[in-house]
Amino acid sequence: MRKLFFALPALFLLASCGGSSTDSAKTTTEQTAAAQKGETLTLDTTGTSVDWKATHKGGLAPRWGKISVNSGSISVDKDSLTGGEFIVNLGSLKVDPASVTEKDKKASDLEGHLKSPDFFDVAKYPTAKFVITKVEPFTGTQTSNLLTDPNYLISGNLTLKDSTLNITFPAKVDVSAAGVSATAKFVIDRSAWGINYKAEGSPENWMISKDVEIGLNLKAKK
C-alpha cells in the first residue's frame, strides 16, 4: 500500500472509512481478563474471521479485506456470554481485489506492504490477540451506527505488535442449543498501537487515515 495505509479509515475509518465517532472503540490501559465461567466452547475457525476496512486521506480510496483466526474460545453461563479469547493470524491478511480499482495498483502489493514493518511487521509479530475483560448489557442510552441490534457491550485487551490496550465496543451475541455466534463492528485508531505510517504530524499532512473499521464474526459449536 504505497500511498495508502492498512487502511484499518482516516484500523481496526478514521478521517474515516465511513464510520461514525459513536462507533469508535473506547480505548484504555490493559485490564485483567474476565473469568471464563460456565461452559467453554472452542471457536470454529472456518466460520470465524476478522474483517477490516481503511481509507486514504479524507475517506478516499477505501481498502478492505479479511484476516483468519488461528484459535480461540468463548464461554457462556446460563445462555449469557461470560468471557473468551482468540488469536488472529496476521500472516493470513488478505486485501479484497475489488477494493483496489486503480490500474497501477495490485491487491497483492498492498498485502505485502501491510505485512511489512511499516504496518504489522508480520515476520516479527505473526499474530494478534484479543482477550475479553468485561461483559455487560448494551443499553438504550448507548448508540451504534455500524451494528444492528447489539445486545452486549464487550471490553477486551487487544494486542498488536508489542502493545496491549483495552477496547470497548458493542456486539450482538446469540446463544442457542447449537452454539454461539457473535458479531461486532467498530473503529480503532491504529496509531494507539504505534502503527503511524503516513499519519505523522498534523492531520492535514496525513496520507492515510488513522482510523480502521474492524468487523468480528465469531462462531462456536456446542
TrEMBL record:
Signal peptide segment: 1-25
Organism: Pedobacter frigiditerrae
Stretches assigned to the Lipid/polyisoprenoid-binding YceI-like domain: 40-221
Full protein name: YceI family protein
One Pfam family matching this protein: YceI
InterPro entries xrefs: Lipid/polyisoprenoid-bd_YceI, TTHA0802/YceI-like_sf
Record PROSITE patterns: PROKAR_LIPOPROTEIN
Record has Signal as a keyword: yes
Keyword Nucleotide-binding tagged: no
